[in-house]
């Protein structure tokens, strides 16, 4: 099958949707299909990154804007590459909050786009339209959901919300994402050297936080928990792994500045280490160097979170917030410790338990390793292909 994966961001741009698209394209190609990425034109891209990406995935940087003009650009590349299906990876910030992509399944756009369109919703946030647009912003997201040939969501919470729409969606599927960071082989990993790289002393424990500083990810709760742990006398430091704000969401920078101010106010600056942007291999080594990964999502842990999948794939002890829906493979006290959202004291208490109870820590790590096997990219690609075949009958007959 010839597949066009549409995304508003793609590496070297920083963002989870771009990383997801890269991994899905690789997995689809490994399964014997031709997957190409259709994405934004960018002005600066190193030749080394270009060459590496060209070897892994065919990337077509042909979209000049994600306003309505993107219809013609998508139609042209779909016709030229003879795609049999288009798969939109939707998260509004990745498209600079523009809404042209929301109307790709419209009757107007389909006059030129002649292939089925499947949309994968990475979240159900709304784009920007104009001041006081209000409910119309939600309607734009619902339009994309109702007019696509099939919908994929990554978690049960989003499925429940889309299932409750006034106009039901006939083809709605749940397929979780996976880790966008491949774990470094332990035989190639020197844990002591990696911890020394970040200035850690032998007696110190290392907490890890992976992902952008984003309002929904509980950075302020994490810093308050770090203050509590510090005040208790624990020799603990926090490693902020990866890019600080990403390439797509401008609100991240404002929130990151607020977290910086809180770090100063709490007096924990000497306990916080920021790695800055790292390549996937360096991210993996940083994750493996940590004793506990702390992910205090404000809206609860969810399968939509790539940082949670990366933590699972690396077999680290995880402390995170209670999910709104059960997560397959993650059981409280067995493979993860859950705490209530927005509760820094509970967060600190759970982290302290893991640091001081070696039996608990070993159990969490062993069990989460097993849970990660539920979310491998070969499984994700196979489930995604099943959806594609349902909306491309001629392709299904050939298979």
Features:
Rossmann fold; six-stranded parallel beta sheet; 15 helices; 41% helix; alpha/beta; 2 domains; disordered C terminus; seven-stranded parallel beta sheet; 399 residues
Q: Explain this structure to me?
A:
The strands form 2 sheets. The protein has a 7-stranded parallel sheet, with helices on both faces. The protein has a 6-stranded parallel sheet with strand order 10-9-8-11-12-13, with helices on both faces. Helix 8 links the parallel strand 8 and strand 9. It has 2 domains: 200 residues, Rossmann fold (3-Layer(aba) Sandwich), CATH 3.40.50; 190 residues, Glycogen Phosphorylase B (Rossmann fold), CATH 3.40.50. The protein contains 15 helices and 13 strands. Helix 1 packs across helix 14 and helix 7 packs across helix 10. It is an alpha/beta fold. 45% of the residues are buried. The radius of gyration is 21 Å and the shape is elongated.
Structure annotation, total helices = 15
- In CATH, the architecture of the largest domain is 3-Layer(aba) Sandwich
The total of beta strands comes to: 13
Mean of pLDDT: 90
| Residue share in β-strands | 15-25%
Largest sheet: 7 strands, parallel
**Intertermini distance:** 9 Å
- Biggest sheet: strands side by side, in what order? 3-2-1-4-5-6-7
Global shape: elongated
């Amino acid at each position: 099958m010839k597949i066009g994966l549409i995304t508003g961001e793609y590496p070297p741009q920083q963002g989870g949707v771009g990383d997801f698209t890269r991994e899905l394209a690789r997995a689809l190609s490994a399964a014997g299909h031709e997957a190409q990425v259709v994405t934004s034109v960018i002005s600066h891209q190193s030749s080394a990154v270009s060459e590496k990406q060209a070897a892994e995935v065919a990337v077509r940087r042909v979209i000049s804007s994600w306003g309505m003009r993107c219809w013609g650009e998508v139609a042209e590349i779909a016709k030229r590459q003879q795609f049999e299906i288009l798969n939109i990876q939707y998260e509004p910030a990745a498209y600079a909050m523009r809404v042209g992509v929301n109307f790709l399944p419209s009757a107007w756009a389909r006059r030129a786009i002649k292939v089925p369109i499947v949309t994968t919703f990475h979240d159900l946030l709304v784009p920007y339209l104009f001041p006081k647009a209000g409910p119309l912003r939600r309607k734009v997201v619902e339009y994309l959901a109702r007019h696509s040939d099939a919908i994929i969501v990554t978690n049960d919470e989003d499925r429940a919300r889309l299932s409750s729409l006034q106009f039901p969606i006939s083809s709605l599927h749940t397929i979780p994402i996976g880790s966008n960071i491949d774990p470094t082989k332990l035989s190639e990993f020197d844990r002591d050297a990696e911890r020394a790289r970040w200035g850690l002393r032998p007696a110190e424990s290392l907490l890890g936080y992976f992902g952008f500083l984003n309002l929904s990810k509980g950075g302020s709760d994490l810093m308050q928990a770090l203050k509590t742990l510090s005040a208790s006398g624990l020799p603990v430091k926090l490693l902020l792994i990866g890019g600080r704000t990403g390439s797509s969401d401008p609100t991240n920078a404002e929130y990151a500045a607020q977290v910086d101010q809180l770090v100063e106010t709490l007096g924990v600056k000497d306990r916080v280490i920021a790695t800055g942007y790292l390549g996937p291999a360096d991210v993996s080594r940083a994750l493996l160097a940590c004793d506990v990964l702390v992910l205090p999502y404000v809206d609860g842990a969810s399968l939509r979170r790539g940082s949670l999948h990366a933590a699972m794939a690396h077999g680290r002890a995880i402390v995170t917030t209670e999910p709104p829906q059960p997560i397959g493979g993650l059981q409280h006290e067995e493979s993860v410790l859950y705490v209530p959202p927005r509760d820094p004291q509970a967060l600190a208490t759970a982290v302290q338990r893991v640091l001081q109870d070696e039996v608990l820590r070993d159990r969490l790590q062993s069990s989460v390793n097993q849970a990660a096997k539920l979310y491998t990219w070969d499984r994700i690609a196979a489930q995604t292909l099943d959806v594609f075949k349902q909306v491309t009958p001629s392709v299904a007959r050939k298979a």
